[in-house]
# Entry
Amino acid sequence: MGSAVITARAAATFEPVGRSVATARAFVRDTLQGWGYNDVVDDAVVLTSELVTNAVIHAGTAADVLCLRTEDGVRVEVSDHYPEREVPLQSSGLDFGSPDRENGRGLLLCAALASRWGVEYSPTRKHVWFQLDLPDRPVGIRSAGPVLPTSLLPVTDQRIRVAVVQIDSAGAISAWNDDAAYVFGHTAEQVTGKQFTDFVAWPHTPGTNTGIADALQLSRWEGSYGIRGADGRTIAVYASHLRVRDTDGDPSTVCLLVRDDERAVLQTPVRAPVSDASSDSRTADPFEVFIGSPAPDDLDGLLQRTVERARDMLDADAAFLLLATDDETELEVRATTGLPSARQRFARVPVEAGTGRYGSARMPAVHEDLTAVPGAVPLLTDTGMRSVVTVPLKVEGRLTGSLGVAAEGAGRYSNEEALRLQFAADRIALAVESARLGELERLRRGSLSFLVEASDLLAGTLDRDQTLALMAQMTVPTLATWCAVYTIADQSSEPYLSYVLHEDEDLIDGLKALLSKIAPPDPVPTPGARVWAAPAEAGHRAALSTSTRSLAHDAPLSMSTATRTTLATAQAVGGETVVLPLVARNRVIGMLTLGKPSDDHFRQEILELAEDLSRRAALALDNARLYSERMAISQSLQRSLLPPGLPDVPNVEIEVIYRAAGEGNEVGGDFYDVFPIRDGAYGFAIGDVCGTGPEAAAVTGLARHALRLLAREGFGGPAVLERLNAAILDEGARSRFLTLLYGELWPQEDGSALLKVVCAGHPLPLRLRQDGSVESAAEPQPLLGVLDDLDLYEEEVVLNPGDVLLCVTDGVTERREGTRMLGDDGLADVLSTCTGLTAGAVASRILRAVERFAAEPASDDMAILAMRVPEPPLV
# Structure
């Protein structure tokens, strides 16, 4: 080494086994990167690999590797321990080897890559060394790009404005140049002395980023944020901060800012960390040293890169990384290599010590043989791994995760490997925690959006079946691969499988059949998700039974459809299945079951989101149940107010069309009835109670039942209506006035029909004759429910063969379109076109005319009663 001063050394010995070559490469790479000698890492690794291969593979001995650091470069020495080595004669020269041979290329590569190299022999030892000098860098040059033609340079709209702002130690603006005034609109006089933070829009996410006040205290900082301009808009900028001190020792921060789309002016090019040749301190970013540059920008990519580098560093067969939950009581598997990652991903293991627990999470630990301590690392159970080293990831003393590497052989690792792995874990712990917090923040924001959308959808329906379908469709595939909803009708009822959904529609029937054969989960009101193993066990038994039957019957190689369905269903339910109670109004009304495919697990964040969803879904489902029950009661009561059916009247066609206004209403303020009074006599009525809804329907029921009772007691039309008027007035404050057309019908032997009618304030009945003429068939009289003393009379009407009597409520005549109204004249015009039509056809034509008169749905109840005396058949 001459007079060169050795500033650091690192040594290691590698056993004569094949994996030692990779371990030696990792040792040299980590050592040189830790020293900041990235410029010579690749050459050193290549040369070390060849020399160690010659020692451990071809010579079959252990290899000693020594790394020596100087100010100008690095020297690496590799020695073997061959017991009977022949010392070459001085005159024989050196055999550099041939590039085409599998061995003997080490010296050839040394001659090609090393600045200096040499070889020393003894009877029991061969010692090869090489020197790699750091490349010379002129002072002041750190990075430069190639010379480009002018046409290839970036295009700018105008000259680039570089705002220069100086911030004093108190955070106030002390200098503001002309470009800053131009870009942001504030003059120097307006901003000088004000806090810089008053103008900064900092993209701060709690727990993940440095704040602007912290950034101004750093010696150097580079990145993006926003400045609020004079017009109130936020202008995105790319900034470079440099903290300096004046001759009096007072610190301040100089900020160079450009518009974000011009960041190339300030942004440092992405490159591997290098050190200045003129500097005595050659340190590199420890995170980039371990992970490599550029680092993955997502958490999963970062974790996967970490386990791969950890495995290579210790020449392991497998590596894994677990992240701690917020309360540090459990670890969640997030990345593995060399292990069945799909089976283990998001699996959880407890932290504290005990059987089946992860006892080594908080401190570095080495297990030389896991067969001697089964269950010490639950993640490695049944994986064939025997030796393992695990180290914690900690941030500010708090456990954030655990990193481990494992090997299939016993006794592979010692405390030395644990220290190396811990050093690597310390390098990446903060970056991993920052990435994890960023992911959690994104998940929480996505969860809030998801729950808001779910709440809107669930609140938009009161239909029970639609609510069940929405619950399942919101969870699959967003939260789970499949979903089943169980409902409980009442306290004494067993859970019922109400809805099943799978992201693969072809598996829904098989999944439903499987779940129908097993007992439902217990309706436990305890909040939170609990694991339900029954589906996976049932699927496993079904698959095993199907496979056994197929083998017993010498089934052909191509499986039957039933067998394929059974096996696919078993795989679909083979992962983790959880049950969340649906609790509403302090009662369990069902269970929401979520499942994953074979050996897959749920993330804790997903389970928490599912729990929030289950609470909202339970309330929506219970609201739908209550609404359905009340609708059923309402409809049952309303149907009791309608006539049971129309009687068959000899020689008279009768048709009724009834439409109640309002969604869900079957009965309103309008009503009708046709009923037998005595032999040969029939009563009919059509009326309209003031108002709509339940109050009007109550008077409807009173009127219809009173009419039947009084008519069958033998009272004539005027007497029936007078007594009904008294009954309505007796209701007091609940009474409502009523318009009513009541009549009695007597079919005659000559084929005609005699009618006696009383029209109490109701739209007049219209009579259609065979010649198409239309006329009123009664005179108007006082309505009911207003006056105590009524003087009513009845009028006789004879319907000849072919005549039609049309009776309607005011919902027909008062049908409106803007300022137009159908009215009595419009109704008469429509009726005049109904000559020769049956009673049913007449009623249908009137209804169509009313509906077509206006585009808006009807806002009033409607009743149409048509009676027609048919013409005698032609002989």
User: Anything to note?
Assistant: The longest helix spans residues 415-459.
